[in-house]
Amino acid sequence: RLDAILGAMSEATQLEQAVNETAVEPLDLAAVVESCCQAYRDVYPEREFRCRIASESTRMLGSGELVAQLLDKLVDNAVGFSAPGSRIDVEVAAAGPELELSVANQGPKLPAHMREQLFDSLVSIRSVSDGKPHLGLGLHIVALVAKFHGGRAIAEDLPDGSGVIFKVRFPRAQP
Fold first, then answer.
1. Is this structure's pTM higher than 0.70?
2. Residue among 141, 145, 137 at smallest CA distance from 24
3. Quick one: which of 42, 47, 55, 94 has the most CB atoms within 10 Å?
């Protein structure tokens, strides 16, 4: 376990350096998300994926590769906290001067005492062991990538209490 923790800390440091050295270019958030959703249907056949994309422009500045990595972490989290056969909703919406990428799943609500720490490094709230180590880097990576793009990550319970939604807000590219 100590080796895994040290490895995770090293990975986090390397990721932070890599993120800071990434070039920024124009990208279409919708295209990145649609491509990822197609792959998730193959990778996680035991889940239903619903992908909804805003009809207006989803252009932003950043790295498509980092956005895909951020989405991978959010989807992995959603799969880990939802039951087989359940649906995971991935959405890109326009929110004024921002774009909002969200991933929602049915499952347990967020623990109230951990809400402020969810995006910190080496924080994990998984209580069920699936045989894979969960060292709390996934949501930390989400926060790093969001910050790199000038955005922010938010975690909330679904309004009906049936699960959670993770939202990442990115600034839109100026026309």
1. yes
2. 145
3. 47
